[in-house]
Design a protein that fits this description.
Largest sheet: 7 strands, mixed
Number of helices: 3
Strand order of the largest sheet: 3-2-1-4-6-5-7
Radius of gyration: 15 Å
Shape: globular
Mean pLDDT: 87
Number of strands: 7
Order of helices and strands: EHEEHEHEEE
Distance between the termini: 35 Å
Length: about 180
């Protein structure tokens, strides 16, 4: 069976949050990824150094010196760190602490069944994460990341969106808040 890895983008400056939110949000994201069918996990750091112990034993940290160029630069760093036998990567955002492991599985299963270069989860018909990128597209990652590429969508409405925590208020009053 084809090997699929996860690349967790955690390199941003988190200016709207006012603190390195990756340190707070990364543990629940990695816990959920550990329950998904990925074979390898790479976490891309940039603006802030993340402690090697913080991602957990099942993830590797990769430093991206060009993180300020945008999410594409961080994604290129993460993809370059993956094993040669990995055929696709699931892109995960570190600020989505409610990621459903089943959404990762559903996107991977769809790609394995129907192929394609870029496949993404959708929630209420709106493109979201996780986003799967087949190896054939790794050489052409735009600086904006794959948000400029139209993916095949896989409905994950029943699983709940992974979230997008930009400010501390995004966590307040949320019964799924990261702990």
């Amino acid at each position: 069976m084809s090997r699929v890895a996860a690349v967790v983008l955690a390199a941003g400056a988190a200016t709207r949050f006012g603190a390195p939110k990756q340190r707070l949000l990364l543990p629940p994201v990695l816990q959920r990824l550990a329950a998904s069918p990925v074979d390898e996990i790479v976490v891309v750091e940039g603006a802030y150094e993340l402690r090697a112990g913080s991602p957990g034993a099942n993830a590797r940290l990769v430093r991206c010196p060009e993180w300020e160029r945008g999410p594409g630069a961080s994604l290129r760093c993460g993809l370059a760190a993956l094993a040669e036998d990995v055929e696709a990567a699931v892109v995960i955002l570190a600020d989505g602490p409610w990621l459903a492991p089943e959404a990762v599985a559903r996107v991977i299963d769809d790609w394995r069944a129907d192929g394609g270069t870029v496949v993404a989860a959708s929630y209420g018909g709106v493109r979201g994460h996780p986003l799967l990128v087949a190896r054939a597209a790794w050489a052409d990652v735009p600086d904006e990341g794959f948000r400029v590429v139209e993916p095949r969508l896989v409905a994950c409405d029943d699983l709940g969106a992974p979230g997008d925590v930009d400010t501390p208020a995004d966590l307040e009053g949320n019964d799924r808040a990261a702990t």
